[in-house]
Structures are given as structure tokens and as C-alpha cells.
Amino acid sequence: MVWRVLPDSIRITTQSEDQTAQLGADIALILRAGDFIALSGDLGAGKSSLSRSIIRYLAQNSVLEVPSPSYTLCNTYETSPKIAHFDLYRLTDSQEIDELGWEDALQEGSILMEWAELGFESLPDNAVQIAIKISGENERQFAFEGNPDLLKRIKRSLEIRSFLNENGWENAKRKNLTGDASTRSYETIGTSGDALLLMNAPAMTDGPPIKHGKPYSKIVHLAEDVKAFVAIDQLLCEMGFRAPEIPAMNLSSGLLLIENLGADLIIDADQQPIPDRYRGSIEFLNALHACTLPDQVQLVTGENHIIPAYDKEAILTEVELLLDWYAPDQSNEPISQQAKQDFEVIWQDLFKIVEDQPKTLVLRDFHSPNIIWREGAKGLDRIGLIDFQDAVVGPTAYDVASLAQDARVDVSERLESELINYYIELGNLDYAGFDEEAFRTGYAIMAAQRATKVLGIFVRLDLRDGKPNYRKNIPRIEEYLRRSLQHPVLSDYQKWLKSVIEL
Q1: Cβ count within 10 A of residue 470
Q2: For residue 301, how many other CB atoms are within 10 A of its CB?
Q3: Tell me: the pLDDT tens digits for 451-468?
Q4: Residue 353 contacts residue 323 (beta carbons within 8 Å)
Q5: What's the CA gap between 493 and 485, in Å, rounded?
Q6: Are strands 109-114 and 36-40 parallel, antiparallel or unpaired?
């Protein structure tokens, strides 16, 4: 398959039916509800063949019967997204297009429409037209033009296919996995027996500048490309922990092929914590916190990655998400300037308390979605790590709080207490000056800090990013925050929350 990108179009040539079918699958991977693909070309050019491969991929059925809708005009399929396959070749009057219900179909899912030019004088703005020409016995030329967003997604899918081809996975089957709260997405590559994971993480910042000319991601030290993931992965492996191998990478395009460590988590089928697995995760943290960190990590490319400090600006900017998103959402009115100033003073003082406490590698999202339980392995090798690109150097208590107040599952107060005690009792804390009381104070502060920022993030994910499902976790985070507020060090913050949003 040969392809190239022009300023507002994509040109592809396939040399076989298999390549055309693979092209259809690669297009299907990126389809969303609201996508409109119009197929044009002479009779026999391959419009129905491309449609069939798209539909079969979405149905995950390579032998699915996909009849031409020449006579029915439209066939629908209950795939994800739902897809409507139109063929307007036998349309007798272009005005009949509105009677076919294409607008309703577009709201519910995606559209594949053959001979769209017979029904539309001009295609809808969200459409991409694929013009197909026969250029040889099995050779087809495809020209993509139209909606820039859809073209961009198709281009990215083709970049992934090229990356796989270049690294020995020419005929690999691809399947989408659920993404996360960031811009990263994942695919399984290959069959279940030899599957790898593909991380699709193009370099980007998190929003416009908000302070000192810097975006949020740079202020709070979120990874803006895959180099941080590669560096921390390498460091964890060198320390003897179980991070995935990376058999192929393209750092400039943000594509990684990584080892699939499995799908077994530290929670059960009912989304409840498995206490032994949480304790195993505490054992990992205890061992990690006993390790000496290098000043920087040298990547295989020769570049150096300096692990950023979880500094005052980062911690305070994160908690301000509560002011920007959660608090106004709860109170339905802007937060007063005085309340904002009081909030900042409280967190300035809390930061001073943890500033001088022992520091370690903070993985930052060390909780159930990101911890793979490797049944059959022994010791710390049971803990597989998959999400650590935002790692920083910060307070030892942070990841303990991230686990013991798991944002995605209900950790009882009793289990939380057991995990904190177990961390302390393990006795592997050989860094100088470990102080149990200071650790417990630091834990309360960092647990409250994490809950505070997560409340803001979950509201932001809904209101800014259109991901409302995260709201279901808010009551859990509120309960965790109430627990942490019982510590005397947080008494001023507790008063502030009660006066501003009645938490």
C-alpha cells in the first residue's frame, strides 16, 4: 500500500484485495458517531468492497454477509459505532434523499454512502469523500478529501499502519482499546497469543498558556510526548521492577509498541478491591521508595530525561482546579476573590510541611486501572506497571494515597488504614530520618491534595472535554477528602471547604 498526504487530501494506492480490505479496517478503527464517508467511482471500482471491509471490521466478523443496499437504499448495522450503509445508485429523484433518514442515522452513528453525488449537490460539511479509480487488475487508487478532522484521524491511522509495517507487523490485526483521560489511546496489535499494545500519543500540550506563558501540562509536569514514558520505563526496569518491554518506538511521531503485561487487575469482577493485591502493591511502593534515584535517565536515542520535581508551583496549580471547575460547579456561582486568596494561603502553608519530607519517584497515577496483577509471578514481579509517563520526584506519601484512596473503586476506611500501617510496618524504609508521624501528616496532606485536584479534573473532563462518565466518581472522591480532613493539619482547609461549598 502506498500513500501520501497533500495539504487537504490523502492519496492511497492498493495493489491487492487484501490491502484494500486492510485499508477499510484502518478507516473503521477511527470512525465515530457523526462521521460521514461518501464513496464515489465508476461501477466496479470497489465502493462496495471498501464498505464491506469497514462494516466487517466494526462487526468484528470477517465473514459477515454485507449485501449491497442498491435496492433497499440503506442497510444498518448494530456495530460500535452504529453504521448505516447507503447506496443512492437507484435513487430516482435527488429530493428523496431527505426521506431516507440520513440525518437521523448520522446522529446515531456513522454513514457510508455510495453514489452520494446523486443525492447531494454538495456534501455535508462533516463528510469526507473517497474517490476510487481502477488503475490495474487488482490495483485501486483512493483520493480522500473533505472534513479536516476526519482526514486527520484517517491520516493518523495510516501512520500507525506504516509504523507497524516498518517494524515487522505488516499484516497485524488492530483493535481499539479504551483510552484514558488524556489524549493517549491504545490498540492491541496481533492475535491474543502474541499481542502487543500500541500506544498512540502524539506530542501536545494541555490547553493554552495559563501562567507565566506556560500551559497547564508544563506547569504541573505532565508528559507532553512519549519520551518520558520511555525514560521512566527504562528506569523502572533497571531498578528491577516489571515495566513493559518496548520492542519498537518512533519518538517523533509518538508511537510505541509495548509489551502486553496482561489484563488482570487488583480489583475483582465486581470492581471491589482485592486486599491481598493492594497489599502487594504497597510492597512494591515500599521497595521503590528504598531505591536511589539518578539525576537523569539517558534514553536509547542518547537524549537525557530529567525527572521533574513535584514542586510548589505544580502542587498549587493542581489544587486550583477545584477553584476553577469543581467549586463553581457545586455552588453555581463564582468563587470570591477573598476565598481564593484564603485557599492559596492554606495550600502555601500545607506545601511547606511536605516540602522537607523525604522524596522519591512518584508515579502519580498508581491505582487500580494502572496496576496489572501478574498471577503466577513471584514477589514484586507480580506488579506490572503501565502508566507512569507523568512521574515526578515528590513526597513518598503521594502514591500511597493514590492507591489507598483509589479514585476508581471504593476503598473502605478500614482497608485504607491497613494499607498505611502495612507500608510503615514493612520496615524497608531505609532513607534517612523516616518519621512515622511526619509520614502520616504528609499522607493526609497529599491525599487531600490529590482528592482536591481530582474533583476539579473530573468536572473539567465533563464540561471541557465532553467526558461526563467521570462524574460518577465524584461522590467517592468527596468521601475520601472528608476522611483526610479529619487530620488536625487540615483543619483550616476543612473550615474553608465548609464555608465555600459545604463539603
Answers
A1: 18
A2: 11
A3: 999 999 999 999 998 989
A4: no
A5: 8
A6: parallel
